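Good morning N.,

You mentioned wanting to compare the apo and holo forms, so I went ahead and generated the holo version with zinc ion. This is what I fed in:
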Amino acid sequence: MSSDREWMSFINRAVTPYHCAEFLRRELVSAGFAEVSLGAPWELRPGAYTAKGPGGAHFAWVIGEDAKPGDGVAIELAHTDAPCLHIKPAGEAGSYYALADTDVYGGPILNTWLDRPLGVAGRVFVRKKARVSTRVSGSAKTAAAKTAGDSGAVKNAFAVAGSAMQVGGTAHTSEYLVSSDGPVMTIPNLAIHFNRDVNKGVELKKAIDLRPIAGFSMEKNWLAEYVASLAGVRAADVVESELYLYVTQPAEIVGVRGDMVSSPRLDNQTSCYALLAAIKKAAKRGRGLSIAMWFDNEEVGSQTRQGADSALAPMLLAKIYDGLGWPAARINEAVFAGRCLSLDVAHALHPNHPEKYDEPNSARFGDGVTLKVSANQRYTYSAELIAEMRERLAAAKIPYAVHTNQSDVVGGSTMGPLLSSQLPMATLDAGVPILAMHSACELMAASDMKALTGLAELFFE
Ligand SMILES: [Zn+2]
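and this is what came out, ligand included:
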C-alpha cells in the first residue's frame, strides 16, 4: 500500500493546477531532470529536462543517446486542473456573516460542494519591496496568525496558518502559491424545512447558493487580510490574487477489503501522477525522444494559452528540435511516425445506473486501465494504435477494458482529439475508470492506478 500512499499524498497536496505543476517540477528536479526555461534559448544534449509552462502547465522530456531527427516521438499528456469554485476579485460579501463571492470553474456537481469543509488556495502576487514574514527556503509555514496580530488590522487571529511557496515573479511583483492547508470555509445547505422538495432535486443559483461562510462578526476587509496572511505580508502589499476553494478531505482508502480510493481530484491527478512516474522511468531507460505534457484548463475547453488546444505542443517540439540543432523540417516525420497517449479519467460502470452505459463496452472497478473508443472522435479513435496497445498490454500482463458511450448518451470529451488536431499523430485516450466524475469527491479502485501507471510507462518504451 505504500505506493498507494505516494500518489494519494500527491493528490492531497496538489490542491490547484498551480500546486500540481509546482510539485511535478520539484519531483522532476529531484529526480535529476535539468530545468530549462521556455523563455530562453536551449542547447540540449541527450538527457532529461523539465520546463515550467504557462499557468498550470508543465513539461518534461527525455532525449536518449540513440535519438535521431525524424524518429517517431512519443508524447503523453494529462491535465492538472479540476472543476472547482473560484473566489471573485472583489470577493468579500455579507455583513454579519463573512461570505465569499464565487464563480464556477468548469463543470462540478455543484451540490457536492455543500456542507463540506473547504480550503482556499491559489496564487498571490506581492509588491516587490514587501516585507515577508518568517519563511524558510520558500516553503515554510507562514506565521499567519502572528502577521495578522502584528498588522493590528484584524481582531481575531486566523485559525489556520497555511503555507506559501515563492514560485516566480517579475520586476514588479513576486508570485507565491498559497494554501490554507486546511478547512476555512463551508457552504451550508438550506434546511429541508424551508425547501420540502429538496429531495426531488434542487437547482442551485450559482450567484447565491455557492457563497461559502468564512466566519461571523469579522471586521471589514477580512478577506484581503486573510489572503495577505497566507502569503505572510501586509494586505497593502498584495497586488493581485487568484484564489479557489478546494476540497480538504484527503484521499482515503475505503471498502471492506480496503481496495477503493475515495478522493477529490481523481480527475485528473491520477493521470498527472502516472505520467510523472512514466517520464521518470523513461529517463532511466534513456532511449528515443519521450515528452510528458501536463496541460491546464481542460475543464474549460483547453483552448487557452496553457491548454492542450493551443500552440504549446507544436512550439515545445520545435524548441526541443532547435535546442538539439536538429533541422525543423524533420519534425513532420517525427510527428507522422510518432504516437500520443492522452491520459484522463474514464467512466466506470455505475451499479445503480447501468441504463446509462453500454455494458459490454464499460469498465468496472478492478478491470484495469480504460482505453476509450468513440466513432465520433469525442475521444481519439485510432484503431491501429489500439490494436498495437492491446498486444503490448497483454504481453506486459497489464489489465485493461475498452469503453464506448451508450449510444443515446452524450459522454464527455478530453484532450486527445484537440492535441491530435495540433499534432497529427496516432493518439489513444485512456485513464482509470472512476465513479462520480466531477463530484467534489470521486471513487475508484486502488488497483486500477497500477494498470494506469503500467500503460503510461509501457507507452514510452
Ligand atoms: Zn479530466
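The radius of gyration is 23 Å.

Happy to go through it together on a call whenever suits you.

Best,
F.
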